[in-house]
Amino acid sequence: xxxxxxxxxxxxxxxxxxxxxxxxxxxxxxxxxxxxxxxxxxxxxxxxxxxxxxxxxxxxxxxxxxxxxxxxxxxxxxxxxxxxxxxxxxxxxxxxxxxxxxxxxxxxxxxxxxxxxxxxxxxxxxxxxxxxxxxxxxxxxxxxxxxxxxxxxxxxxxxxxxxxxxxxxxxxxxxxxxxxxxxxxxxxxxxxxxxxxxxxxxxxxxxxxxxxxxxxxxxxxxxxxxxxxxxxxxxxxxxxxxxxxxxxxxxxxxxxxxxxxxxxxxxxxxxxxxxxxxxxxxxxxxxxxxxxxxxxxxxxxxxxxxxxxxxxxxxxxxxxxxxxxxxxxxxxxxxxxxxxxxxxxxxxxxxxxxxxxxxxxxxxxxxxxxxxxxxxxxxxxxxxxxxxxxxxxxxxxxxxxxxxxxxxxxxxxxxxxxxxxxxxxxxxxxxxxxxxxxxxxxxxxxxxxxxxxxxxxxxxxxx
Length: 463
Description:
Peptidase_S1_PA, GMP Synthetase, Chain A, domain 3, 3 domains, Peptidase_S1_PA_chymotrypsin, Serine protease, 41% strand, 6-stranded antiparallel barrel, 10-stranded antiparallel β-sheet
């Protein structure tokens, strides 16, 4: 079934791409994708060219040129509602700062944390409620390396680090953002380059010399690499605002037109990743301030760079990561692989500890009194200590004590049980052995030899 769906997508893709420009030019149309057709709000399971609009209009209110045809080259169409917005950067007037969720200043730079420009940007309505200088917050997605000079860089969106077309190379960045309590003392790098193309909304910031970094994403772990997103894959992201959230890739064919505002205006991005929120784990996948987050699959492979989403939180959109890396001329920094040797040279020694009461256990008779003990004694018992060791070439030593005594570096530490009552002049330990029982010397020899062997196994580095 999956292969049939993939083949159906491939057959529709060419027609959808050829019709995109015409469809996007129609009234209220903001996106085009390949998805299941809906009838009366129910999924039919039939793949179609889906046209997304801000709000559906009665056919009577649309001109013939603005109506979406019922099919295109024999492929059915569907019209669905969606309101799209950039998922950041969060912004506030300089004098009206309200920090959001993660405002932590991290000593080591890594993915999934707050960042933003050190500068403020003057904006006017309708982009903002009132004219003034605004500060911004977004997310540092991941650490990358410049393909040209090998410099360590931080990856995020164009609209997070640049904001609009007033940016310049060298603009300073802070972590956390100014909106989240950062200041000039939190500077970590300079904006080096950025792109807002038909596939990528991205930028990279060269990290200052001496600043500590790690190839990881907060709450997710080490970055293992990158790969192409696949329909149906479970994904997650960690962003500054909604932090760790979960979703599912539903398309890699999404085309969307978004109003970037200010001096940028409307911009269309093609071949984007569309992600549906897993509402069983997250109320929404992203929100304002999460822009710049990287999208990762279950193997900690990066598949995309988050830049926008729907206002209701149901959908999130991301640039394909390969396009991001190529346009910005960088490579993801990947955590080093720790090679752990395969332990194939384990030897197991079976040590039988014949444990008995100490020889020092004696009875003291006091005239006119019953026999009393001066030292607690135990009965003879056999305890099997399974000591797993290694050959000299193995780098680790694993010990698996399976006995009912404690194994210590001094050998078998034998807990001594309380004795039973005194009967007929002897101390009964509950096992039929009396305190006056004589033990053969060879018994003690075997016991001490076993303890010495255990001790040698513990102390040796070449076992």
